[in-house]
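Deliverable D4.2, example record:
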Amino acid sequence: MPGCRLAWRVRSTTPGMPISTACRNPPRLDWRPPMPGSERRIRCVAAVLGLLLAMPPAWAALPPALQTAGLPAAEREQLEARAARLARMTPDERARLSARVAAWQALPAAERQRRRIAHEAAATLPHAERVRLQQAATHFAALPEAEQRTLRLEFEQLDQGLRRGWLLGPVLGLDWPGLHPLFSAIPEAERMPALLALRATSPQARADLAALAQRTPPHERAALRSAWLAVPVESRDAWLRARVAGTP
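Output generated by the structure prediction step:
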């Protein structure tokens, strides 16, 4: 999976503007990958980091005004940590970072969106699955270019819903064709609970879910999914087995 880095572009700034003012009135930004939190806070973080990148190291310390700008403590700590890393960069490191930013901005919008989605999905994977993906990426990179093109073409010819299933990792991705009917149109509020529940299931339980999804009419699948999520974790596998067997 392609590695992702933070990317932004500050399109207009006012010389001498304090960082705290820039946070309250952030310039237009292109941001990659999206961080948790409101859009206002996202733009604030990006504006500060963008301004710090252009400043000499002596200016890289965050002003006290920013520390009291109303950001939650966790987000303020993340901002300070990023600012500290930028402050420690050498001119060559800053130049390389700027080059990566420029390369990111040169990508088509659709490709940037695809990579954002992939990065967000990778961040939620268990460690063992991230290791498997890194190993797969290394193996893929070692293949002849013709074979790489063939594999890419085969993947691109899959249904979009099935391609997105592979973003859930090698375990759920393999089972996604059967699970897709039950989880393809899931409300945002249920998405993370359902994902965590799926990651905790056994292979047999996922097979049972897939079997039930095929048996259940489309208009009843949301109710099936909600009923499954409502079952206590320790009882879900048995509940699925009973439903597959036709036991009430």
